[in-house]
Amino acid sequence: MKVAIMGAGMSGLSCAIALEKQGVTPSIFENRGCVGDRFVNAESMFHVFNSPVKDCLHYLNEEYGIALKPVAEVRKIVIHSKNETGSITGNIGYTNIRGRQSDSYEVQLSNQVKSRIEFNSKYEYEELCKNYDAVVLATGDSDYASHLGNFRNDLSCTVHGATIEGIFETDTPHVWFDYEVLPKGYGWVIPYSDKEANIVMLYPDYPSITKMDINEMWSKYYTLAEKDLNQSFRITDKFEVTRYMVGICNKPKLDNTYFVGNCFGAISPGLGFGQFTSILTGIYSALDICGLGKYEDLVKPLFANYDHSLIFRRFLENLKDTDLDLAVKNLNVKLIKQFIDKACNKDSKLQLLKDTTPLMAIFNQFKKSRE
């Protein structure tokens, strides 16, 4: 069987690994010059957002033989609102690096692939579709899915980020929800060593926000992060992604074409990460190609998780700074903290995002009815 994979990112490489384990050697086409040929950034994987899987890296290794080493296990998330600071503690996830770094997830996956990758590829989808039995679209964005009329766009976002030097605890990312500084958005500081981290702000491209002075927004957020972490950072690199479409494909497969990774809609609308979904879609497409499962059925939980995450995003947007302050303040109340810590731990039997979706949906509808 002739299989073409367009894209050598996480989903495309995961597909290749899964195919090779079944004796299929794919042709991999990448339009960039090397694996991870993009800006370097740190990301997080939280167990609570990947339910019912409790430990995604252990699951990938045990079920599919894909081994990934994180930067660190997350033992604490510090959450900052306008006037409050709280935390969630326990075994709650991982941090990882994306991009050109030698230990990025892309590079780790490429080291497990035996098939040849054709870099600087000029092949287009239409040509591959004619010459291969199956084409896996893993191009890292929704362009092809949109072009084929197979993508539902729910949100457009802009991301500003930088690599910074400072003093960090690698097991402790920080997140900010302060709508006076970042309207309807949020910010992260995620370390990938004890001396380097990414500082990122993400906001939806609503007209009321895009007309604001973005440089001023960045300056206020950057200053706030320095104050809350009680240090001065030094920027060594910057990156920006503008008007990125967050959504999901209407159908995961059309004829002999599989949509995986961000072509599928891996990015979570809630907090913006999607590594686990990207890898799973790559694996699931390979299983379908090899007759070991039906892609449409395998990805059903991923569609459901995306919808839950979208409701969570709308819920966050409907909150005010006073609501966020109250929520963060409650993280310091002993009984509430114990419950949240336990619910977010990898050993929890609760599916917190799924279980709270009905209440968040009611709240969102209430807010909409009052507009």
Can you describe this structure in just a few lines?
The protein is α/β, with parallel strands linked by helices and 371 residues long. It has one domain: FAD/NAD(P)-binding domain (3-Layer(bba) Sandwich).
Task: Write a concise keyword list for the protein shown above.
14 strands; alpha/beta; 371 residues; FAD/NAD(P)-binding domain; 13 helices
Structural commentary:
By secondary structure, the protein is α/β, with parallel strands linked by helices. Helices cover 36% and strands 26% of the residues. The chain has helices spanning 10-21, 56-64, 105-110, 125-131, 143-147, 207-210, 214-228, 275-289, 295-298, 300-318, 321-330, 334-344, 352-369; strands at 3-6, 27-29, 41-46, 72-81, 85-98, 117-118, 134-137, 151-165, 174-177, 186-191, 196-204, 234-249, 253-254, 257-259. Strand 1 (3-6), helix 1 and strand 2 (27-29) form a beta-alpha-beta unit. The chain is globular, with a radius of gyration of 20 Å. It starts with a strand and ends with a helix.
